[in-house]
């Protein structure tokens, strides 16, 4: 048997993975151009993620197992009836970048081609649609011009709104190695000092939303200072003069504009000089995309590269860092509601082409509902049947309350997934078991346009099917021709053939994979990774200066709304005088984003203990000044809300801290209860929370407090800078339970199960003024005692069965750091004095956050090593050598460097 070469299931880097012949081991594929053999810690634990706590293996109707024939027949009946009685616009698909290209292709073909409904959108709308719109406006087509080699050939790489050290770690490690070998400069533009910013040569900390103004100002200054490539601009672009004129009025006072962004004139000039004097790659991600003016901001970035003539050349250009493994493939087959297959629009000529290619099809004549519009229409009763595939909108979409109402209102909700446990799956009428990574085969396209094979290496269990098979079964049941594919390779060939037809009719289009038209099933199975245009000598697009408009010229695009500096000026977000402190909506602007080791809504990673150790439970990270102004200590609980809380009859707002426990059910659903943690990297007034937490940990997902504001051009939701209010609840009781849970009802604000390799554990937070009550129940013997940790009292309660420790609680007010793994391992051990002493010692020792997951090194371990660092040694190198941290995937190096820097500063102070 040979190894199976496939691709990673996570980010858009698209790393190659080699699976051992027995399917029990993996390593990075050294032959894959994306990662050259390297994997991040999520990728290294792909096999650990496969045993799901609850896998969906058979169709379920209203919670009861059914068969595929009955499920497909019911779907055909309900979707056909909706189209017949209410029109094509009453049915919809909501898809995902987790689908393979072939799944995406047939889903788009069914809905847009044969239902006649353009209501087909994807969760890529939430992360990449601003880039799509910006590319279309500037280049004439949704195209990423560069490739990963550009990060290694650039003289300067600017990362904007990207924490690549965590979100695209393998690509970021390539960049760090380029700096070591070639001296590549790294600039990070981000409000937070992220793990990426900590490793940059220069971190520019802008006010949130300041990117549009900065790159508009940069364009003006580059032009004013003669940095333009006039020959390139004249030959290959249009619209520069109009763009400069529109910006000049808003940004005439360079000094005032720079100050509003928190930059001095010398700092602005430094950035101008870096751009004019180097080959530059500007890479952007969600921090840019997920803004109300995200599309305009990306066009502002592209404008700078067009001015410098730095597109289509080695080591330079704008680069969109894609979030999902096949977000690019989905865009190519028309999975967004605003486009058709092969980057076609809804014009008469494009629709006629598709009608001829798909005989019997009836195509919509206008774009469909985008993600937030779709669920709003569903909540209004306009969507009568929806099929959701491989995504969890109850957690990932903004305004969770609206999404829940939409799914409860829609008469027929079908969900295809690998587990029945997601927040969305629990609201489905019909659940369909889908093949997951390791079981399904097809292709994906990564951020640099490389098409790779994803291959199955495990046999499917139960009756799970590939998504394309389920779509084709429904299409045939509804009487449509053209869905009888004998293999997944046949779907790919049809996708290829369509690209050839499109290129023949619209020669200005750049998307072209027609060289693969004669690919046999055997050649498809053996296909090595390849970048399109297939067979091209030049790996970059636009090397000849021709863009995808009919005249071949790229467009400079001015912002639809000019930057307004007072609106982004870093004004105090809260009044620091406690007597005047108010908590009105808008006092805080919440940012959410990825944590290092989790993926999306934790469906595939939340049950892997090793990936949970960096952040055991949801926390709200606050700037120290905010903590001080609100009189908060680490571990104190806050209520985080997006909208007004429940009002009493007289219209007076109810404060959570004033509610009795029995009244907590009346609190607005758009409220999260989170312990706070100090974060020196944050600006005052701009708290941060990881995006991954769901209703299963919080009672409501993080996006319960995110309003459905969208970019007016791309319709992408603006997850960044959300206005929220914080209501401090103070040092409420926190209880952590291990092992067998005692009987009796606990009255709590929040309950969360922890993922541990051995033993069960749960965390409870209680309402203000309510103390946890021990209730041994089940006729178990109980012990109850307390410990003193400084000024803090810690209560312990243990349950004993057959002279062994059956379970125990640890409770305290406020912060309660614990080593959950060590404590859970004590459950089931014989109870004696030595075990109780060990338990007490472990509780008092607390917990040190895990920094290096690959080597299992905690912050305390690094600090211990640094304390022994000999004079003259470099602390970072010493810590790495002594502990092994950073020698695995390398994504922890930013945190290790920050700890080493703190050590150096403290050493300088002590020797001062």
From TrEMBL:
Keyword Nucleotidyltransferase: no
Highest rank taxon of the organism: Bacteria
SUPFAM superfamilies in UniProt: ADC-like, Formate dehydrogenase/DMSO reductase, domains 1-3
Keywords noted in UniProt: 4Fe-4S, Iron, Iron-sulfur, Metal-binding, Molybdenum, Oxidoreductase
Domain 4Fe-4S Mo/W bis-MGD-type intervals: 1-54
Lineage, highest ranks first: Bacteria, Pseudomonadati, Pseudomonadota, Gammaproteobacteria, Alteromonadales
Protein name as annotated: Molybdopterin-dependent oxidoreductase
Keyword match Lipid biosynthesis: no
Cofactor entry: Mo-bis(molybdopterin guanine dinucleotide)
């Amino acid at each position: 048997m040979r190894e199976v070469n496939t691709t990673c299931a996570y980010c858009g880097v698209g790393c190659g993975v080699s699976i051992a012949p027995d399917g029990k081991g993996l390593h990075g594929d050294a032959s894959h151009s994306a990662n050259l053999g390297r994997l991040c810690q999520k990728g290294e634990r792909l096999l650990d993620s496969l045993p799901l706590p609850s896998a969906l293996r058979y169709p379920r109707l209203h919670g009861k197992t059914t068969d595929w024939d009955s499920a497909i027949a019911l779907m055909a009946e309900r979707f056909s009836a909706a189209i017949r009685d209410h029109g094509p616009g009453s049915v919809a698909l909501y898809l995902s970048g987790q689908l393979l290209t072939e799944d995406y292709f047939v889903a788009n073909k069914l809905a847009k081609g044969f239902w006649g409904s353009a209501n087909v959108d994807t969760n890529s709308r939430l992360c990449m649609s601003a880039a799509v719109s910006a590319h279309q406006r500037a280049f004439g087509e949704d195209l990423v011009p560069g490739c990963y080699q550009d990060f290694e050939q650039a003289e300067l790489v600017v990362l904007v709104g990207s924490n690549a050290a965590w979100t695209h770690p393998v690509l970021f490690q390539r960049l760090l190695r380029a700096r070591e070998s070639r001296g590549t400069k790294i600039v990070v533009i981000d409000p937070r000092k992220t793990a990426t910013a900590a490793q940059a040569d220069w971190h520019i900390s802008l006010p949130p939303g300041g990117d549009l103004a900065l790159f508009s100002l940069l364009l003006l200054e580059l032009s004013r200072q003669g940095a333009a490539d006039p020959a390139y601009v004249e030959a290959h672009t249009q619209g520069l003069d109009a763009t400069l004129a529109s910006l000049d009025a808003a940004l005439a006072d360079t000094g005032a504009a720079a100050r509003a962004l928190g930059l001095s004139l010398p700092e602005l000039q430094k950035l101008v000089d870096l751009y004019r004097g180097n080959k530059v790659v500007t890479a952007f991600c969600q921090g840019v995309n997920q803004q109300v003016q995200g599309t305009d901001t990306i066009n502002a970035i592209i404008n700078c590269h067009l001015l410098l003539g730095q597109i289509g050349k080695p080591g330079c250009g704008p680069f969109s860092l894609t979030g999902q493994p096949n977000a690019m493939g989905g865009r190519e087959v028309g999975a967004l509601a605003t486009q058709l297959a092969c980057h076609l629009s809804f014009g008469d000529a494009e629709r006629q082409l598709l009608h001829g290619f798909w005989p019997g099809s009836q195509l919509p004549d206008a774009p469909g509902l985008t993600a937030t519009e779709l669920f709003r229409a569903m909540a209004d009763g306009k969507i009568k049947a929806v099929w959701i595939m491989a995504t969890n909108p109850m957690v990932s979409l903004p305004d969770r309350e609206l999404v829940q109402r939409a799914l409860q209102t829609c008469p027929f909700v079908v969900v295809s997934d690998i587990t029945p446990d997601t927040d969305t799956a629990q609201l489905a009428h019909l659940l369909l078991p889908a093949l997951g990574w390791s079981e399904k085969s097809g292709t994906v396209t990564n951020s640099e346009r490389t098409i790779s094979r994803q291959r199955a290496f495990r046999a499917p269990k139960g009756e799970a099917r590939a998504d394309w098979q389920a779509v084709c079964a429904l299409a045939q049941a509804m009487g449509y021709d053209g869905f009888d594919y004998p293999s997944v390779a046949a779907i790919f060939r049809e996708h290829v053939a369509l690209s050839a037809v499109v290129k023949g009719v619209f020669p200005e289009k750049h998307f072209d994979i027609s060289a693969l038209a004669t690919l046999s099933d055997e050649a498809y199975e053996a296909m090595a990774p390849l970048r399109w245009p297939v067979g091209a000598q030049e790996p970059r697009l636009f090397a000849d200066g021709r863009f995808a408009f009919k005249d071949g010229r790229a467009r400079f695009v001015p912002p639809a709304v000019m930057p307004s500096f007072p609106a982004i000026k870093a004004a105090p977000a809260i009044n620091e005088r406690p007597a005047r402190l108010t908590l009105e909506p808008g006092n805080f602007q919440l940012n959410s984003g990825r944590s290092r080791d989790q993926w999306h809504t934790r469906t595939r990673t939340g049950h892997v203990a090793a990936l949970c150790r960096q952040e055991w439970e949801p926390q709200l990270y606050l700037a120290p000044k905010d903590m001080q102004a609100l009189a908060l200590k680490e571990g104190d609980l806050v209520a985080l809300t997006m909208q007004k809380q429940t009002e009493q009859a007289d219209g007076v707002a109810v404060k959570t801290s004033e509610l009795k426990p029995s009244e907590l059910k009346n609190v607005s659903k758009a409220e999260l209860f989170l312990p706070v943690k100090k974060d020196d990297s944050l600006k005052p007034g701009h708290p941060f929370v990881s995006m991954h937490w769901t209703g299963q940990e919080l009672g409501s997902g993080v996006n319960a407090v995110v309003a459905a504001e969208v970019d007016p051009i791309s319709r992408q939701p603006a997850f960044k800078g959300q206005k929220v209010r914080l209501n401090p609840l103070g040092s409420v009781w926190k209880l952590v339970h291990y092992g067998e849970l005692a009987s009796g009802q606990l009255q709590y604000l929040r309950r969360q199960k922890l993922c541990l390799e051995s033993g069960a554990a749960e965390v409870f937070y209680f309402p203000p003024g309510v103390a946890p009550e021990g209730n041994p129940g089940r006729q178990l013997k109980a012990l109850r005692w307390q410990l003193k940790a400084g000024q803090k009292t810690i209560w312990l309660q243990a349950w004993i069965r057959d002279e062994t420790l059956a379970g125990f609680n640890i409770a305290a007010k406020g912060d309660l750091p614990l080593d959950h793994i060590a404590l859970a391992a004590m459950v089931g051990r014989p109870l004696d004095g030595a075990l109780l002493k060990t338990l007490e010692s472990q509780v008092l020792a607390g917990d040190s956050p895990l920094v290096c997951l690959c080597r299992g090194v905690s912050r305390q371990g690094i600090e211990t090593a640094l304390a022994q660092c000999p004079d003259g040694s470099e602390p970072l190198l010493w810590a790495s050598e002594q502990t092994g941290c950073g020698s695995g995937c390398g994504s922890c190096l930013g945190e290790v460097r920050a700890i080493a820097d703190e050590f150096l500063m403290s050493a300088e102070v002590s020797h001062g």
